[in-house]
Amino acid sequence: MQQPYEPLRSPDTSPRVLVVDDDPTVAEIVAGYLDRAGYAVDRADDGPTALTRAEAHRPDLVVLDLMLPGMDGLEVCRRIRGQGPVPVIMLTARGDEEDRILGLEVGADDYVTKPFSPRELVLRVESVLRRSRPAADTGRHRLGAAGLTVDPEARRATKNDTELALTLREFDLLSFFLRHPGRAFSREDLMREVWGWDFGDLSTVTVHVRRLRGKVEDDPARPRLIQTVWGVGYRFDPTGGED
């Protein structure tokens, strides 16, 4: 049967998505749309069950509700991310900015606020998974500066030969900075070029820059590589501000 989305996988290698939501109607609708799009779907309706399912069958992506019984989505995200790099799209029934920022702070790669379009969520899942896959060999060389190295094909990043544990968006953001050293970009520019969004919550960019600084700067409180350009946005300076 022809799928409504162009498949990027064979039936035996379908990406596994874990849907975690205690609302059975939401979970059923989301799982149904993902299943029809060609994904292998697991479900959990509380935090502890989500961790058990994730350990038994490592997901390629998690769709995770913020408000869960037994353990909230923030703690579930922390623990799943602690086991290894798994993309997470967080769902929240509230539009409160603090909730969104907390989700991003613990490592969520994207978020969707309820109510949402199930088809839009499927497209977000496809977009996040596409970015998380190692790129085809396009002849692009590794990127490097200031002790940082990024391998776009393997999606690996290192600092002074030590591998960095970056989320999907952090990796994309660092790669973009390394490709454009010395140039200042606004948060709108970064959202468009790195996230692929023409509009959205700009605090997403702010949070990811802060998290990335925490992993690449010697002193994140006094960043020298990813500099704030007041009134504009951010600039990557491979010299670290030295003359």
From TrEMBL:
**What SMART domains does the database record attribute to this sequence?**
REC, Trans_reg_C
- Top-level taxon in the UniProt lineage: Bacteria
- Positions modified as 4-aspartylphosphate? D65
Q: Which Pfam families match?
A: Response_reg, Trans_reg_C
Which residues are in the OmpR/PhoB-type domain? 138-238
Q: Where is the Response regulatory domain?
A: 16-129
> Can you say what this protein is called?
Response regulator transcription factor
Source organism of this protein record: Streptomyces olindensis
Instruction: Supply the source organism's classification.
Output: Bacteria, Bacillati, Actinomycetota, Actinomycetes, Kitasatosporales
